[in-house]
Specification:
The chain has two domains: about 30-85, no CATH class; about 90-405, Aldolase class I (TIM Barrel), CATH 3.20.20.70. It is about 30% helix and about 15% strand. It contains eleven helices and eleven strands. Helix 4 (about 165-175) runs parallel beside helix 5 (about 215-225) and helix 5 (about 215-225) packs parallel to helix 6. It is globular. It binds S-adenosyl-L-homocysteine and iron/sulfur cluster.
């Protein structure tokens, strides 16, 4: 089979912002400032807010409390007040799949009204390895972008996740893995058996383009990094972008985590087809933004992701061009074997070719790990995520569009 390269892949789809948050909001995922504000709104005096935020923070993020009544250091009167106005809800687990290799995938239903639509759902994946446990987190329901090799890119309905829904994925994973202080650890293939944390690393590599949901991702990652709570350091968090050039500098300045770029091609002509956003922000501009990424250095390298597509971008000339292109940028190159999905128009490169490609990159002085596909049997590997939210009929979609237009 030869790959289908469609010149007419649209660049972006329109994001749908029809979503009504639950009447009783969850306090999970609020920044410290937003939490103080939420407490102020139910009568906690300004002089008390900092102390209360600290108490709640500990119960929510260290102990994993799911109800206010568990918070034994908080007064009973306060439990009643909080309970009347707020919850500690996380997204609801609709399905859990465990791969033979220990990878776990959760399908999560997000709270709130969706006004006649199917419930909004996202996927979140946990990948245990011998030296770490990585959680792959989504930033949007679907993705407005349309990369031709990505399953998420085919999902039509899109909305941005709130910070609570992003942090909520980490909370659900910690609940399921028993990764909060005082909880019993989950058992299973690949899971840590010692005292180390189950989730040591976070990658914003699930569904969606994180830099198209900038503020929510920034706030959520601030919560995840907070040293008195989940406490995952910024060096253990990686944000992957398909190349939203105008946001890259802000990401470095305001989020400050490790950066990964979905490069996938060394020529604009091909990248335009694989990652249509390239038509807006071509390779030269993208690499210039990488050179200027705040904090980039040899100890904080940018990862360039390169999906290996048979006979499309995997020639040895491409490998040579890749190392020439990245000259002068502190970089790592991550070769990703293409993960097929139902109806995908590409094939994965031959293993032999991936090895030769990797050798050229390695000989040029770059670390060039090949990303071992994990959880392929449960469609949990890179680019295979897609929730059923999109599965509306043409008629349902038209009705929605009509509703949106009459707003
Ligand atoms: N939207 C962001 C982050 C999510 S995708 C981005 O594009 O960077 C995470 C990584 O998986 C990206 O590098 C993406 O290009 C890659 N990917 C997407 N579909 C894939 C597939 N079918 N096989 C292998 N990698 C894929
Ligand atoms: Fe969106 Fe990333 Fe998939 Fe492209 S690869 S469609 S940006 S999730």
């Amino acid at each position: 089979m030869t790959a289908v390269l469609d010149n007419d892949i649209p660049l972006e789809k329109v994001a749908l912002e029809r979503y009504v948050p639950p009447a009783k909001p969850s306090l999970v995922g609020l920044t410290r400032a937003a939490l103080a504000e939420a407490l102020g709104a139910v009568g906690v005096a300004p002089s008390q807010q900092k102390m209360r935020v600290q108490q709640l923070w500990h119960w929510i993020y260290v102990r994993g409390a799911q109800s206010f009544s568990q918070m034994t250091s908080v007064s009973k009167e306060m439990h009643v007040v909080l309970d009347r106005h707020y919850t500690l809800a996380r997204p609801e687990v609709v399905a859990e799949q465990i791969s033979v290799d220990g990878t776990r995938k959760w399908l999560l239903r997000l709270p709130g009204e969706t006004e006649g639509e199917r419930p909004h759902e996202v996927e979140c994946v946990y990948i245990p390895e011998s030296d770490r446990g990585t959680l792959c987190v989504s930033s949007q329901v679907g993705c407005t972008l349309t990369c031709s090799f990505c399953h998420t890119g085919t999902q039509r309905l899109v909305r941005n996740l709130t910070p609570g829904e992003i942090v909520g994925q980490v909370m659900v994973a910690r609940d399921r893995l028993g990764d909060f202080t005082g909880m019993e650890r989950a058992q299973g293939p690949g899971l840590p058996t010692g005292g180390e944390r189950a989730i040591s690393n976070i990658v914003m590599m699930g569904m969606g383009e994180p830099l198209y949901n900038f503020e929510a991702v920034r706030d959520a990652l601030a919560v995840v990094q907070d040293g008195d709570g989940i406490a995952i350091s910024r060096r253990r968090i990686t944000l992957s972008t398909s190349g939203v050039v105008p946001m890259i500098e802000r990401a470095g300045a305001e989020i400050g985590v490790m950066l990964a770029i979905s490069l996938h091609a060394v020529r604009d002509e091909l990248r335009d087809k694989l990652v249509p956003l390239n038509r807006k922000y071509p390779i030269a501009e993208l690499l210039e933004a990488c050179r200027n990424y705040p904090g980039v250095s040899n100890s904080r390298r940018i990862t360039f992701e390169y999906v290996m597509l048979k006979d499309v971008n995997d020639s040895l000339e491409d490998a040579e061009a890749l190392v020439r292109l990245l000259k002068g940028i502190p970089a790592k190159i991550n070769l990703i074997p293409f993960n097929p999905w139902p109806g995908s128009p590409y094939e994965c490169s031959e293993w032999d070719r991936i090895e030769k490609f990797s050798e050229i990159v390695f000989d040029a002085g770059y670390a060039s790990p090949v990303r071992t596909p994990r959880g392929r049997d449960i469609l949990a590997a890179c680019g295979q995520l897609k929730s059923a939210t999109e599965k509306l009929s043409a008629r349902e979609r038209m009705a929605l569009r009509a509703m949106a237009m009459t707003d």
